[in-house]
Amino acid sequence: MTDEGHISPFEKKIIIRKIERKDFDDLVELQKVCFPNMKPWKKTQLESHIRIFPEGQLCVEYDSRIIGSCSSLIVNFNDYLEQHTYDEITDKGYIKNHNPNGENLYGMEVMVHPEFRRMKIGRRLYEARKRLAEAMNLKSIIVGGRIPVYHKYSDKLTPREYAEEVLQKNIYDPVLTFQMMNGFTLKRIITDYLPDDKESMTYATLLEWNNIEYKPKKSRIHNKMSFPVRICVVQYMMKKIESFEEFATQCEHYVDVASDYKSDFAVFPENITMQLLSFLEERSPSLAVRKLAEFTPNYMELFSGLAVKYNVNVIGGSHFVERNNRIYNVAHLFRRDGTISEQTKLHITPNEQKWWGINGGNELEVFDTDCGKVAILLSNDIEFPEVSRIVAEEGAQIIFVPYCVEDRQTFLRVKYCAQARAIENQVFVVTSGTVGNLTHVDNVDIQYAQSGIYTPSDFSFSRDGIAGECSENTETAIMAEVDLEVLQRYKKTKDVLTMRDRRTDIYSLHIRS
């Protein structure tokens, strides 16, 4: 029998795990030791890493001490120039350009504490990266490798000659030699890669490890030079009806139209179910919305069924939902595979509070769909730039804005802000509003709308930054296509890049947990 009491003092566990917030201070100190002449990570960068791609951020813990780490993101490397810089490929270290649909794992950094460099810590981290690439079916791992000994030879060897000498084992370079021993192939020399890297004279080697188990993805985003998404915007008429069945018939008509045009999304306006109040005999607004909330199961069943039946992802406008005796204005995404997600309105208007006692939500979501990542911002949520910036940073390529307003001035706030958000964040923004009137419903008596599909303002997109727009104050639907592949290329290759060129060295944005 083993006496565990005698063994335990000698046990020192070595663990490879995901980086957590509690590790940030240790990682910054480790980086200062490993790279004393280079700027260490900022905590805002580390926060961005674990928020955007936690699987790619790994550390080695030995006897409860962080002694090594590596950081990665996923990209489509073909989208970048051969002579890219570190800041370009890592979004200045914030990895907001991480592409979950990409083919390549890009290694940003590997570091091992000097006291532990004989324990094969670096090899363990490289093996963990390889397992991650295999598990995620990524084509390869690409790294921009430092050549920290080059400064000693720069007076007599070019970077290429230096790399060849290292490959011939005539020179030992701790980074390049290590990478070659771990199965990486030298592709080319990169100039001006990392300005702070004086030891490498700002040069780097581009290296690649190929995943021999990679299975090509049968996704249109990889097989075509375009990824068109067709959107049907419904400018919905608010008029008196006699039953929920009549409401359902009107909604089904528009989903049917969207399906006939092979749309990927059908978008309905905010407060669409307020139309039900035209046959509910309740004059008190605060009590009327609670009666409206009783139709939540009917509403959910209707739109979920339509999404599946017509094979269209449906943004079901918004509906008042009661939770814990409070009323919320909630938008729903009904996917064509039958799944449902929701976004509660964050910023409640004075009228919503005064007439209906609506409460604001506290969660901001980005949703995965079969057409990329999307977000839903209800009405005046689009008027707060921080909210759109956050969902764009989380990867949303389309922001849907269901709205319901009563006059032209309020409508113009929504429209102009939607167009501004499309330009600022390099995304598509889709608005859908109500028209008509409900003569017997307080605070929904008149409506004003001109729904639209807005793009960034540049040569890659529609003239005037408008892919499609409804006629003012008319019940109608419009269809237009937006191309997500064009959007991705535009974010990486054009001169005016508002997301890329942000001064994240002097400001940042985050959600309080």
From TrEMBL:
TM segment ranges: none
Keywords attached to this entry: Hydrolase
Annotated SUPFAM superfamilies: Acyl-CoA N-acyltransferases (Nat), Carbon-nitrogen hydrolase
Short name of any one Pfam family annotated for the protein: Acetyltransf_1
Domain N-acetyltransferase per the UniProt entry, residue ranges: 14-208
Cross-referenced InterPro entries: Acyl_CoA_acyltransferase, C-N_Hydrolase, C-N_Hydrolase_sf, GNAT_dom
Entry annotated with the keyword Hydrolase: yes
Domain (CN hydrolase): residue spans on this chain: 229-484
GO molecular function: acyltransferase activity, transferring groups other than amino-acyl groups; hydrolase activity
PANTHER family, per database record: HYDROLASE YHCX, NITRILASE-RELATED
Protein name, as recorded: Carbon-nitrogen hydrolase
Species name: Paenibacillus wynnii
